[in-house]
């Protein structure tokens, strides 16, 4: 063992820096992300032509976080921003596969923003994405950002859902 110890620094130098993890670099800290999302939902806002009232706070759901991470990794690998997975699976199918039984689900995707604040700004500028952020029916969320070498470099996935079996609350009677 003594002979190997002097070689360890040399081996580390020769091997060079470790490659960046494919999902590292942009994932926001969980509590900070929840605080930002819930502060956003705590204020009424206009999404397109509709004013949405303040919405209840979202809860982090680890199953949704993992599902969002897996989809973000796929988006990064494929260098695409789309809701349908490579094998044709929908958000509903991905959540079912992850073990989350939903009554209602929505998904916001973004490619390129460096921070959660930038991704949220993009989503708030889109009526449909803004509505997802403000829909009081959603109770749980999962969020992931991964980096990749492609055009977008950062791939954001926000999954919002209401679990099956819970009472439905409608924030917008048109939905």
Question: What topology does this entry show?
Answer:
Layout lengths: L3 H12 L14 H12 L3 E3 L2 E3 L6 E2 L1 H17 L12 H8 L3 E10 L4 H9 L2 H8 L5 E8 L6 E10 L12
Parallel strand pairs: 3-5
Antiparallel strand pairs: 1-2, 4-6, 5-6
Overall 3D geometry?
A: globular
Strand sequence of the main sheet, in spatial order?
3-5-6-4
Helix and strand succession? HHEEEHHEHHEE
What is the end-to-end distance? 68 Å
The DSSP helix count reads 6
**Topology, number of strands:** 6
* Weakly predicted, low-confidence segments: 1-23
Largest sheet: 4 strands, mixed
Q: In terms of structural class, how would the helical and strand content be classed?
A: alpha+beta
How much helix is in the residues?
Answer: 25-40%
Beta-strand content: 15-25%
Can you tell me about this structure?
The protein has 175 residues and is an alpha+beta fold. Helix content is 38%, strand content 21%. The protein is built from six helices and six strands. The strands form two sheets. A four-stranded mixed β-sheet has the order 3-5-6-4, with helices on both faces. The longest helix is centred in the middle third of the chain and has 17 residues, at 62-78. The radius of gyration is 19 Å and the shape is globular. The protein starts with a helix and ends in a 12-residue tail after the last strand. It comes from Pelomonas aquatica. Residues 1-20 form the signal peptide. Residues 55-159 form the SCP domain.
């Amino acid at each position: 063992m003594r002979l190997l110890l002097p070689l360890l620094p040399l081996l580390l130098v020769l091997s060079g820096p470790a490659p960046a993890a494919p999902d590292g670099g942009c994932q926001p800290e969980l509590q900070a992300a929840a605080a930002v999302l819930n502060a956003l939902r705590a204020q009424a806002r206009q999404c397109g032509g509709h004013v949405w009232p303040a919405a209840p706070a979202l809860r982090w759901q680890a199953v949704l976080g993992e599902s969002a991470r897996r989809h973000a990794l796929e988006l990064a690998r494929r260098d695409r921003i789309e809701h349908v997975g490579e094998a044709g699976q929908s958000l509903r199918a991905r959540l079912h596969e992850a073990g989350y039984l939903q009554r209602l689900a929505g998904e916001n995707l973004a490619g390129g923003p460096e921070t959660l604040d930038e991704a949220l700004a993009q989503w708030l500028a889109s009526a449909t994405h803004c509505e997802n952020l403000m829909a009081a029916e959603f109770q749980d969320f999962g969020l992931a950002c991964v980096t990749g070498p492609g055009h977008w470099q950062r791939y954001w996935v926000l999954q919002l859902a209401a679990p099956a079996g819970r009472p439905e609350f409608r924030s917008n009677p048109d939905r």
